[in-house]
Amino acid sequence: MKILVCISKTPDTTAKIAFADNNTKFASDGVQWIINPYDEWYALV
User: Fold this and answer.
1) How far is CA 11 from the centre of its chain?
2) Is the pTM of this model over 0.85?
3) pLDDT (tens digit per residue) in 10-42
4) Distance (Å, rounded) from C-alpha 45 to C-alpha 33?
5) Which residues partner with 26 through β-bridges?
6) CA distance 12 to 34
7) Which of 3, 5, 18, 33 could disulfide-link 9, Cβ–Cβ 3.0 to 4.6 Å?
């Protein structure tokens, strides 16, 4: 059996994030991206 699992990248949970354009857009400059911690946990189970 083959199973496909989708995972998502999210900003590092310890990073400070900022918004641009009157708080309508996420400013991703200098943000480190990691695998969603919940996705990482369930990939191991």
Assistant:
1) 4
2) no
3) 888 888 888 888 888 888 888 889 888 888 887
4) 22
5) 19
6) 6
7) 33
